[in-house]
Write a structure and sequence with these properties.
heterodimer, A: alpha+beta, two-stranded antiparallel ribbon, two-stranded antiparallel sheet, 2 helices, B: alpha+beta, Cytochrome p450, 5-stranded mixed beta sheet, 3-stranded antiparallel beta sheet, 12 strands, globular
Chain lengths: 70, 449
């Protein structure tokens, strides 16, 4: 699974980084969020990722199942 | 095409400026959420009211169809900005009453002063201010949490970040608070207007000084900003500074006062929050924000005919987005009328949504958390006096408190008092150039001795 922040929807509310600081980092200048972990979401962060999805006021975060390999 | 009667078939007689609205907020909110999450109200010349969480979410994020513009000189479409009804003295309320691209340019100028990284640098300054405020009362066993703490810290910090001398805080503080809670028909309004004039004169003086000789702070960024390729006129800049001050002062005060009042009424929850602050402070802060929604909503003007969230809107119609009511929607918040310090999935609307998200949200959270934890540490048994607590009579503009007296077991002073601390912090601000943007200065403030 991969976590994705839609940069067009994120407005820098910062709740994701409060919930999962190991998963999201906030831009120094405008506080907008990006995902730190490039690749598969570690199992121990799944619950926090799900909570970040639920808590985002702009609904900018999604957890996407990886495409099965051909 | 459907006719107006059909478009406006969901009706509600909505007047958020009456004391009855504050008194019956829970019932009115439940009724609107249940029957008409978007309703037409004939009050104040007629306007829409959005209360439902999904509806407010969809509307607030549709910036292509909604305008915040307050066109005071009637140069564009004559839209009336974010206040319903339109205030008697028309004054553009900074970039909150602008649309892109100007709105975006202002935010880009101020973001490096207000981002999470920028705000974190000020934490040691806030801690000094809170310590000093509590020192003034700690030996007496009595405090007014509004007058002695929650009014002071946000005001001094906001001025520091703007680049205004810290000692001027009291000149700004009462003028801002009183202008929110004083009724326009009360005899006190003349004095309030006079204090506001004094504040604006000082603000204008600061701006003129900073134009002539640069010093770090948000005012410096504003006077040198190119907004859509132009240097904005002074009156527009004053509106922006007033927005930062208005946003920075009364809202955090309101949140802090209400939260402390609730914690006094729920001592077991207070003890739990204090003991488990490492895990609970963030969620508790979001929950207090949701429940007390200091800024209860924003007005908009429909900029083009559209259908959003199932309602057909016409260009030029006015709309009230109620953050306060959408924050109580049971479809998103189970048991919405209860405070749950560990609430999860708390996607509240208290800082607004979309491109106008409160630019000071990071300041509000940091200052609130530092004030709250310091009170929990130094006055752990505080008991607010319900007879002395004064809530704003109406909650149409800010859901605030005027006074919140409390008693507690006296304790020892730690370090110096407020005036000495403010004088010392001024030197630190100047020497360390704390009010520079985070792009220029990365380090946190250093407080020595």
């Amino acid at each position: 699974m991969r976590v994705h922040v839609d940069p067009d929807r994120c407005q820098g509310h910062t709740l994701c980084a409060m919930i999962a600081p190991d998963l999201f980092q906030l831009d120094e200048i405008d506080g907008h969020s990006t995902v730190v972990i490039d690749g598969d979401l570690p199992a121990d962060l799944e619950a926090k990722a799900a909570e970040a999805v639920r808590s985002c006021p702009e609904q900018a975060i999604s957890v996407i199942a990886e495409e099965p390999r051909a | 095409m459907i006719d107006d009667a059909e478009r406006k078939k969901n009706r509600y007689d909505f007047d958020r400026h009456t004391p009855e609205y504050r008194e019956h907020f829970g019932e009115i909110t439940a009724e609107m959420l249940g029957k008409c999450p978007v309703a037409w109200s004939e009050t104040y010349g007629g306007h829409w009211v959005a209360a439902g969480h999904d509806e407010v979410f969809a509307l607030a994020r549709s910036s292509e169809y909604l305008s915040n513009d307050h066109d005071v000189n009637n140069e564009r479409k004559g839209y009336k900005g974010i206040t319903i009804p339109t205030p008697e003295s028309e004054f553009q309320g900074g970039f909150l009453e602008m649309d892109p691209p100007e709105q975006r340019h202002y935010r880009q100028a101020l973001n490096p002063y207000l981002s999470p990284a920028a705000v974190a640098r000020w934490t040691p300054v806030v801690d000094e201010l809170v310590r000093a405020c509590l020192n003034e009362r700690i030996e007496t066993g009595a405090i007014d949490f509004v007058d002695d703490l929650a009014n002071v810290v946000p005001a001094v910090l906001t001025l520091a970040m703007l680049g205004v001398p810290l000692k001027n805080w009291s000149l700004y503080c009462e003028a801002v608070h009183a202008s929110v809670y004083t009724r326009h028909d009360s005899p006190e309004i003349a004095k309030v207007r006079q204090d506001q004039m004094t504040m604006f004169r000082d603000m204008f003086g600061q701006m003129t000084e900073i134009k002539a000789s640069p010093r770090p702070g948000m005012i410096d960024a504003l006077v040198r900003a190119q907004i859509n390729g132009k240097t904005p006129p002074d009156l527009e800049l004053l509106g922006v500074i007033a927005l930062v001050i208005g946003g920075g002062f009364d809202t955090t005060t309101a949140l802090t006062a209400h939260s402390l009042e609730w914690l006094s009424e729920h001592p077991a929850e207070r003890a739990r929050l204090s003991a488990e602050r490492g895990t609970l402070l963030d969620s508790a802060t979001e929950e207090f924000l949701r429940f007390y929604t200091p800024a209860p909503g924003d007005g908009r003007t429909i900029a083009a005919d559209c259908v959003i969230a199932g309602t057909e809107f016409k260009e030029g119609e006015r709309l009230w987005l109620s953050w306060a009511m959408s924050n109580r929607d049971p479809s998103v918040f189970p048991n919405p009328n209860e405070i749950d310090l560990a609430r999860t999935g708390n996607r509240h609307h208290s800082f607004g949504l979309g491109i106008h998200r409160c630019i000071g949200s990071n300041v509000a959270r940091m200052v609130f958390k530092r004030m709250l934890t310091e009170v929990l540490d130094r006055m752990p048994d505080f008991a607010c006096d319900p007879a002395g607590a004064v809530h704003y009579e109406t909650i149409g503009v800010i859901q605030g408190m005027q006074h919140l007296p409390a008693s507690f077991t006296p304790g020892p002073r730690i370090g110096d008092g407020l005036d000495e601390t403010i004088a010392r912090l001024q030197v630190i601000c100047d020497e360390q150039r704390l009010a520079e943007p985070v792009t220029v200065r990365k380090d946190s403030a250093r407080i020595s001795g």
